Amino acid sequence: MKLYPVIKRILDFILSFIGICVLWPFFMVIAILIKLGSKGPVFFKQKRIGKNKQEFYILKFRTMRTDTPKDMPTHMLQNPDAFITKIGRFLRKTSLDELPQIINILKGEMSIIGPRPALWNQYDLIAEREQYGANDIYPGLTGWAQINGRDELPITIKAGLDGEYVDKMSFLFDIKVFFKTIACVLGSEGIKEGSSQSHTTN
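RE: above sequence
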């Protein structure tokens, strides 16, 4: 067994624990804003595919109305703006809606860096990832494909980048992905809303 996956899991646990301890006041502020802005729960849960294709429920801050169609990537909606809340638009643009996945990381369902977890019904993406071994590792809060196109990527290219991550996975490569993620978030790169093109979920 390779050593780095073991070290990676230990680092994931330590960093996610620290993250929750440091960010919980920030979580509370976001939760209050969500509740004040629209009816419904603070968190949004969605069935995703994890390591070895095991299903789990990903956590996000809710950014859309409760009547939004379920299990459909936002970019596939005909009119996503009609469903996204005001605070939700800001959370999505800044990727702050993804912060609750720190809990998924702490629970051992995700990693900080890895392929973004596919929806349970994204059979084409799951099948493409299978040939690269990308279904055999923990999905990530961010990943190599995320910083190389995100919603703009067709499934075949996205899966190929996920496979490239599997081949290159190391501490230094994860550091590179982490800091490039920060740059992408600050620039709001690769985010698409609406079904003008057929992309994969983020």
